[in-house]
């Protein structure tokens, strides 16, 4: 699967669902939530799920009383990803949910989308946070191979009590 990214702040393409961070009360008064309400049909009072040409993903408590805990945001992300998986004919533009009003960092939120299906376009600011680990794994394997048991390494191991096998 080739992951899709878009420039942060991009408008969705025609027919693309706008995924925005919301509060549980569905008060879409600022930021991406306001855009969802004004431009993409998000219904006032809907704090989670499909609404208009949008998808409300809650990151803030009811009545905008502070951020939801990361565990609750993770659960909401999982519900959204299930929705995206069950709707492969739809395309979703995911905004930096949880990274503005809720105050979480991209590093807190981006990994929650690691298993996003191909029909989800993610913010390009998350690209490095979601990059495949293949280069790291490759370096680790190179290091491991270099540390293979050679006569020299065997000699070092036999003198180091922490590296001796029992």
Explain what the structure shows.
With 166 residues, this protein is α/β, with parallel strands linked by helices. It contains 5 helices and 6 strands. It has a 6-stranded mixed beta sheet. Strand 5, helix 3 (106-109) and strand 6 (120-123) form a beta-alpha-beta unit. The longest helix is centred in the middle third of the chain and has 17 residues, at 70-86.
Question: Secondary-structure map with pairings?
Answer:
Elements lengths: L3 E3 L9 E8 L7 H10 L8 E3 L2 E7 L9 H17 L4 E4 L11 H4 L10 E4 L10 H13 L4 H9 L7
Give a quick rundown of the structure.
This protein has helices spanning 31-40, 70-86, 106-109, 134-146, 151-159; strands at residues 4-6, 16-23, 49-51, 54-60, 91-94, 120-123. With 166 residues, it is an alpha/beta fold.
Task: Name the descriptors.
single chain; Leucine Aminopeptidase, subunit E, domain 1; 6 strands
Main sheet: strand order:
1-6-5-2-4-3
Mean pLDDT over the residues: 85
Q: Which blocks of ≥5 consecutive residues have pLDDT under 50?
A: 141-147, 155-166
Question: How many β-strand stretches?
Answer: 6
> Percent of residues in helical segments?
25-40%
What's the CATH class label of the largest domain?
A: Alpha Beta
Please identify the structural class as seen in this structure: alpha/beta
Radius of gyration from CA coordinates: 22 Å
How does CATH name the architecture of the largest domain?
Answer: 3-Layer(aba) Sandwich
Spatial shape: globular
Our count of domains comes out at 2
The helix/strand series, from N terminus to C terminus, equals: EEHEEHEHEHH
């Amino acid at each position: 699967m080739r992951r899709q990214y878009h420039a942060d702040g991009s408008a969705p393409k025609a027919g693309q669902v706008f995924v925005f961070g919301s509060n549980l009360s569905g008060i879409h008064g600022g930021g991406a939530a306001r855009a969802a309400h004004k431009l993409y049909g998000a219904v006032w009072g809907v704090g989670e799920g499909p609404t208009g040409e949008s998808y409300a993903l809650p990151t803030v408590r009811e009545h905008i009383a502070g951020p939801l805990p990361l565990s609750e945001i993770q659960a909401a992300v999982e519900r959204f990803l299930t929705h995206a998986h069950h709707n492969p004919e739809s395309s979703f533009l995911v905004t930096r949910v949880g990274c503005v009003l809720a105050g979480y960092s991209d590093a807190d939120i981006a990994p929650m989308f690691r298993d996003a299906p191909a029909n989800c376009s993610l913010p390009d600011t998350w690209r490095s946070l979601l990059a495949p680990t293949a280069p790291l794994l490759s370096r680790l394997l190179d290091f491991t191979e270099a540390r293979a048991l050679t006569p020299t390494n065997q000699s070092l191991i036999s003198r180091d009590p922490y590296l001796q096998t029992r």
